[in-house]
Amino acid sequence: MWTFLAKNKNDVIYLFLLLFSVAIGPFYRSIKLTNTKKWAGTLIGIIIIFIVSGYSAFHPIFSASLGVILIKLSTVRYCHTVTFFFMFAYLFFFRLADKFGLPLSSGQTNLIQMIIVLRVVGVAFEINGSWKIVGKKKNENTVDAKNEKDNDFVEVINPSLEDLFHYSFNYIGLLTGPYYRYRTFDDYFHLPFSKYVDYSGFTINTLKMVPLYISLYLALSNLWPLEYILTENHNNRSFLYRMMYPWALFAQFRQRIYSGMTLAECVCTAVGLGAYPVEGRNRTGHGPTVGYLKLKQMSEEEAKKVQYDFNTIESMDVWGCETVATLRDSMKVWNKAVQYWVAMVVYKRFPIKPLKVHAALFVSVIWHGIHAGYFFCIYFCPFYLMAEDIYYKLYYKNATGMKKKIMSIVMWFLRSHSESYQAAAFLLLTFDRIWIYYTSMYHYWYGVWLAFLILGLVLNQLNKTSRSKKSVEEASSKKIE
What we know:
Structural class: mainly alpha
Subcellular location: Membrane
Keywords: Acyltransferase, Membrane, Transferase, Transmembrane, Transmembrane helix
Family: Belongs to the membrane-bound acyltransferase family.
Helix content: over 70%
Main location: membrane
Strand content: under 5%
Membrane topology: Multi-pass membrane protein
């Protein structure tokens, strides 16, 4: 027991700080004065950074401080671009600190630095995006007539330097997310929703699954350790055993992520951050998507009676992660807050349309780290999706009854196996370790992908030809009639 604790000291401290952040939530929520509340949250956040990072606390504190100063010094037209390149350049420096004669930081400090990047870059894009809407003279209350959704920005966002500082360092979500917009942060202090939401009920309901996730993680990591797949004993096992071993690795990895993300959500629910009335049709990361300006005008009496949710700060749809049939759907329910950030900051704003997906994936990779494993895991997803989309349209999309159930099981298995195979690279990190493992497996899954893709393209072409002939025959029969 003590050996395990000593070996995983940083993880234990990190877990304790997450639990501490959940526990102090009700006390933080009870602070009445807005300015006092902001400074209290910031002070707690900075203390947590020092506990986790020690001397390495310099990195997140310095980069965030300089980042928010750059936002205010730059013009609103370019603040997002300047901030983006500075924060990611510093992220590279932070991860290559040993090349400059500085000690490398712990993985836990790296997680904090990653969240700091999301916040500082995200708020810069919020400021620029809201300015663009006003610049185009769009009405702040304009909605999409087709689906009655708000625009991405319905009012000007222009926080002061002090508020940017508070947003960057507030302890809520600082350890491992979730990412939330500056608008959500500002609403927490100025709208009444956090006062009347059943924060304890939401927190307890979310928290009750964490012991299960932690128990499963400890059991799986003990039974199927990562390092075993690089040993000769593993290579002497049957091919089927070696083929399925990544399932155990990815399962334990998922339990670890579920634990951290669920506790991070509990930090938010314990203070009431991210609570909005359900009528806002709230979306992860974004918040209300319908009638936001109307919600802002809600009185205290109305706020007492409405129903709330915490969809805005939901990072993981655990049930969806375990059960969805396709990789495309799996990507939508995995780490949803970061997915939202990548979509809003990179995908929607990248100027070259054919390269939008590649830009989003590239930024996602370098945000995670500079190791080869992240490229192998994340950047190979589109190649699997190309094949998956073909079979989805041919056999799954319009299927019904037993055929739909069978196809769902088949696609779920293939999706899960693909994710597990890629997750092995994500966990092994370095190219040499990945190459040793993939070589021992003859790189078989890439061959399977390619075969599925070629076969899918052939079947898709045959299907198009068949439909074309059928259309011609039907047209001919109509003429004869």
